[in-house]
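Q: What residues go here?
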């Protein structure tokens, strides 16, 4: 797949060229790229400046991160004294996107790579032959997959198939019919002349056997020990080390280790979604994340899902030593960089989670003799407390406080808190239901947040309630997320249009055209303000493209398009002309409630005066898919 961007020279902002990448890029990222603008008096440092519709293929020699022009320009890399002789070849796919199954026919090959040989017959199995650059410094990472290939500078039908390892080594070679051509014909054996029998020599007396000399002990192999242990929560940053942009967990980079436990990577950047190579060991190590960008074939040849936001790694046993990688930029320092060692990195105990709120908070519990239990959790945490003469006293920071002496509620030690109550609607838990409304038997309106086993993020602001006959009523609004999460795609507010015929970009406006014969009907459900998404083949990953600003349908004049604003937060440039286009309605305005087998709700009151709450109710109906 190709992605086209404008690159701006770090030395002269007026020099801009169009370039083609193998993966999506982030604006203002800086790369070291050789030979991009010869004769224009600029160096090799380039900043991603904007999107383009075409461009020459480039492969960065180094990644200097966001706004890294100064780092890229100092020092200037010295050119190779004697550049090697290289030859252009064409492959049918970019690195990592080859076939897992040996093909039995040859196809068109549009992807340029470089080799140290010029013909197919010169390819020797077991030898490194392919690189990504003409200087033969960046090996073609084949991921042990099959690639059609043909020598030359222009796309053409392949004339052979190679099985290529991660360092560019050709491990096997086949013709277009799938026949192995690594080995030539077996040579005809040459008859061996008979060897005359020599006379048997007279036996010679044997010398005494010398006493064995003790051998020196073989040194034990060096056992890898983690430099840093993952903690329960780990900040995620990025640092260029040795010319490579690397993931940094917890502020330090090195060999990371863990025992068993749950480990959270905090706020992984959307520019660097991460996956852990746990193929075959999912019973020992699993991972999940806040946001998914979809799946693709990893650098080890297996398919993984990539996440950003808060990413959780759950370890239940000895997974050995594994790698982690970025969706867009390869390993980023993660190759064989996570080691199980519960001696150097003791197992983490499961966290003790209070009944509600953040596990790091402390609570004061109250016991009720009437219910024989602990019904309330208070936000304050005193240094000492006691009851005396029918009054309750507490001590904090050397000061003494007497409780329940004024009308001000939820104020402890001069800090104002909120009242919260969490419960669940779970009648008939085997039935899938729509939770439509919330009714409060209360003298005040409360704000409400709701989550089910299928949908999350629904809410009701306290100002949305209407008071009728002494109670408060409001319908549930499902807020959704933007960009939408994968689990939101099956919702009723999501609709498909079809494959586009062309896409054009002018500034912040993108026009998406659809066929008129045969007709791809945009439909009447699409409205200005809806959010457009697109999916390139094989339609397994979905990206947000922008918000609808205009809908133009005039079939008599062959007009059938929509116009979107591509500058909204989180939008991604549409990378091809014929992607599948879908849209999501405004989930709050189009909300039908919360879908699920049960509904967990939390109500919050921010008043500082006394408030009564008698009951919380919901109007529920059975969902019929």
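A:
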């Amino acid at each position: 797949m190709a992605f086209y961007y404008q690159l701006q020279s770090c030395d002269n902002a007026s020099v801009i060229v169009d370039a083609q990448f193998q993966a999506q890029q982030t604006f203002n990222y800086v790369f070291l790229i050789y030979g991009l603008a010869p004769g224009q008096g600029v160096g090799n440092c380039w900043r991603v400046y904007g999107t383009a519709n075409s461009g020459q293929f480039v492969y960065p020699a180094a990644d200097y991160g966001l706004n890294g022009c100064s780092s890229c320009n100092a020092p200037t890399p010295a050119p190779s004294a004697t550049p090697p002789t290289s030859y252009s070849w064409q492959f049918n796919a970019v690195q990592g996107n080859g076939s897992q199954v040996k093909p039995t026919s040859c196809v068109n090959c549009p992807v340029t790579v470089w080799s140290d040989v010029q013909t197919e017959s010169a390819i020797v199995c077991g030898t490194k032959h392919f690189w990504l650059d003409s200087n033969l410094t960046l090996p073609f990472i084949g991921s042990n997959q099959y690639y059609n290939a043909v020598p030359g500078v222009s796309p053409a039908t392949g004339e052979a198939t190679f099985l290529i390892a991660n360092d560019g080594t050709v491990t096997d070679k086949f013709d277009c019919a799938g026949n192995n051509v690594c080995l030539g014909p077996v040579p005809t054996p040459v008859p061996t002349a008979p060897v005359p029998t020599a006379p048997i020599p007279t036996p010679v007396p044997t010398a005494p056997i010398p006493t064995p000399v003790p051998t020196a002990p073989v040194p034990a192999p060096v056992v890898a020990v983690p430099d840093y242990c993952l903690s329960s929560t780990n900040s995620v940053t990025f640092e260029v080390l040795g010319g490579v942009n690397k993931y940094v967990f917890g502020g330090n980079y090195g060999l990371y280790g863990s025992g068993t436990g749950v480990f959270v990577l905090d706020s992984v950047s959307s520019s660097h979604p991460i996956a852990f190579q746990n193929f075959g060991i999912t019973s020992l190590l699993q991972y999940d994340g806040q946001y998914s960008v979809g799946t693709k074939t990893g650098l080890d040849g297996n398919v993984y899902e990539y996440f950003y936001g808060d990413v959780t790694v759950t370890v239940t046993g000895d997974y050995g030593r594994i790698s982690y990688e970025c969706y867009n930029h390869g390993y980023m320092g993660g190759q064989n960089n996570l080691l199980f060692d519960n001696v150097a990195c003791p197992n983490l105990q499961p966290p003790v989670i209070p009944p509600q709120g953040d596990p790091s908070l402390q609570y004061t519990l109250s016991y009720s003799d009437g219910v024989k239990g602990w019904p309330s959790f208070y936000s304050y945490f005193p240094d000492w407390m006691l009851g005396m003469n029918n009054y309750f006293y507490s001590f904090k920071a050397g000061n003494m406080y007497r409780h329940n002496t004024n009308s001000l509620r939820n104020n402890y030690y001069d800090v104002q808190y909120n009242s919260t109550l969490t419960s669940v609607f779970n009648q008939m838990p085997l039935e899938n239901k729509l939770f439509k409304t919330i009714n409060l038997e209360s003298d005040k309106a409360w704000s409400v947040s709701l989550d089910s086993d299928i949908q999350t993020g629904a809410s009701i602001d306290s100002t949305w309630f209407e008071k009728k006959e002494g109670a408060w009523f409001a319908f549930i609004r499902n807020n959704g997320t933007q960009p939408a999460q994968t689990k939101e795609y099956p919702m009723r507010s999501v609709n498909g249009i079809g494959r586009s015929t062309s896409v054009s970009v002018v500034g912040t406006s993108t026009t998406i055209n659809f066929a008129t014969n045969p007709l791809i009907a945009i439909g009447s459900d699409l409205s200005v303000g809806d959010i457009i998404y697109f999916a390139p083949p094989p339609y397994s990953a979905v990206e947000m493209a922008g918000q609808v600003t205009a809908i133009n349908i005039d079939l008599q004049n062959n007009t059938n398009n929509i116009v979107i604003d591509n500058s909204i937060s989180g939008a991604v440039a549409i990378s091809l002309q014929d992607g599948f286009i879908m849209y999501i309605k405004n989930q709050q305005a189009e909300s039908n409630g919360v879908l699920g087998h049960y509904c967990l709700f939390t109500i919050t009151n921010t008043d500082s005066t006394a408030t009564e709450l008698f009951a919380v109710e919901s109007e529920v109906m059975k969902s019929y898919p």
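A: Context that may help when evaluating the design: The longest strand covers residues 285-297. DSSP finds one helix and 52 strands in the chain.
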